[in-house]
Amino acid sequence: MSTSDPKIAFVLGGGGVLGATQVGMLRALCDHGIRPDLVLGTSIGSINGAFIAADPSSASVERLEQIWRTIREEGSLQESLLKQAARAAKYRTHFMSSKPLRTLIDEHLGVQLIEDLAVPFQCVAAHIESSKARWFTSGPIAPALLASCAVPGVFAPVEIDGQHFLDGGLVHSIPVGRALALGATEIYVLQVGRVEQGLQVPSKPWEVAAVAFEIARRHRYHEEIDSVPDDVALHVLPSGSPSTPSITLIQGSATKMEERAEQAYEASSAYLESALSAG
Q1: What element of type H or E holds 267?
Q2: How many CA atoms lie within 13 A of 244 on its CB side?
Q3: 3-state DSSP call for residue 247?
Q4: DSSP assignment, residue 157?
Q5: Catalytic annotation, residues
Q6: In angstroms, rounded to a whole number, what is the distance separating the alpha carbons of residues 93 and 226?
Q7: What does the radius of gyration of the chain's CA atoms come to, in whole angstroms?
Q8: pLDDT tens digits, residue range 85-123?
Q9: N or C: lower Cβ tally within 10 Å for the chain?
């Protein structure tokens, strides 16, 4: 099915290591026989989304679970503090290398081009030179995913054809509007828990920037959710987590990551049971 005629869209937002939450949601969707006709992803959601677009089956979800398990247990995307400090001193703009993430994509995804995925897929990144969103709909998939995941200050901007890109969350944190624009009639939002909790007025100097960033990241999502037409079925899957940190990069407790995936699976399964029962 072409992206001009999608029906069911999976929309996966950003969230660093909180992306483990989406794996639980994907398992719940798979268990309930819900398959996407279109997958849209931002930041870590682009990675998870690409795997499900490559093979929208339980086998793919199991493979994704194993990858996240390896990340949790071995810290395969992390570097020593010494290496981070050396990189920060050398480049002054970032402290992590994207090479481990590129290796993960190359070794496990099994697809070289976006158009070769089994399900139409798009991911977004922020184009530095124009300050616009750039949607990757075809071409080499690894550079597109790395661009979408290029968290400012953590990873270096990704260069593609002489242009430079940063994390897609800067322009589309959870791209519901893109699914609507492409004609989706049923949308499943895979968020990581942040949008489930309201923000608090900052009371400390360092909280001001965090709250301001969250407002900038969330406002478009809320506006797009409010604009969803009545004839479009919208499902915002619950994370099942009682709390979610506002700022996450790439490090996290292995136990907490696994816990979040299980919480999301249970909460999303219960939600889907209720939604299917209601017709």
Answers
A1: helix 254-277
A2: 26
A3: coil
A4: P
A5: 43, 167
A6: 36
A7: 18
A8: 555 566 566 557 788 889 999 999 999 999 999 999 999
A9: C
Q: Token digits for 47?
A: 């990675």
Question: Hey, what are 209's tokens?
Answer: 């920037």
**55 within 8 A of 122, measured Cβ to Cβ:** no
Distance CA 259, CA 242 (A): 11
pTM, to two decimals: 0.90
Contact 136, 3 (CB under 8 A): no
CA–CA separation, 10 and 83 (whole Å): 37
